[in-house]
Design goal:
With 191 residues, the protein is an alpha+beta fold. 27% of the residues lie in helices and 27% in strands. A 7-stranded antiparallel sheet has the order 2-1-7-4-6-5-3. The chain is globular, with a radius of gyration of 17 Å. It starts with a strand and ends in an 8-residue tail after the last strand.
Length: 191
């Protein structure tokens, strides 16, 4: 249904090599559509092309379900922060997802500089048979620009939000990337 690339900004390379150079997001109607899409000529060609530009040894993916926490207009060139989250040790997946969606999400939605906020919760099937995915969720947040993002430091809603983070997230394992969406023109081209 939809395909978006988010590329790490050049400033993300100033101090060290980022963990990810970019992120590709793909939306499907359901899991069966995702699986059958991989077998189409377009899916096979896209998979074969990955070796031309992706270090497949560091390639990773998670299957998630989106929960929009704050709806807003997303325009090209907006600052986008993507955070890969790992739940706190000892916290169940269910408790993590419930707290993130029903407590943290509404707090974050109150931040005036935050224009759009989507939580992507890893699907429960990823945890079957003792499996443990690398991340438990992805938070995507959009701001008008980087100046708006920087103004958050003294904002009261952010202070309240920060106090909740240590309860449900393993803070030492949060991976953040400042990125910009470069192309959403492929909407509707996926099988």
């Amino acid at each position: 249904r939809r395909y978006v690339q988010s590329h790490t900004l050049d400033s993300g390379y100033t101090k060290h090599e980022p963990v990810y150079d970019g992120i590709a997001e793909l939306w499907y109607d359901d899991t069966n559509a995702m699986r059958s899409g991989a077998d189409t000529p377009e899916g096979v060609a896209a998979a074969a092309d990955q070796a031309n530009f992706i270090d497949t040894a560091s390639f990773d993916f998670i299957i998630t379900e989106e929960r929009e926490q704050k709806h807003g207009v997303v325009r090209p060139g907006m600052a986008k922060m993507i955070s890969f989250l790992t739940r706190k040790d000892g916290l169940s997946v269910e408790a993590f997802q419930d707290y993130w969606a029903n407590h943290h999400g509404p707090l974050a939605a109150k931040i005036p500089q935050l224009r759009h906020y989507v939580q992507s919760h890893v699907r429960g099937s990823a945890y079957h048979a003792g499996r443990n995915p690398r991340y438990d969720g992805v938070a995507e947040t959009w701001f008008d620009d980087f100046a708006a993002l920087r103004t958050l430091l003294g904002d009261r809603p952010l202070l309240e939000l920060t106090l909740t983070v240590g309860f449900y997230i393993n803070v030492g394992r949060v991976l953040r990337a400042l990125q910009i969406d470069v192309d959403d023109s492929h909407r509707g081209l996926l099988p």
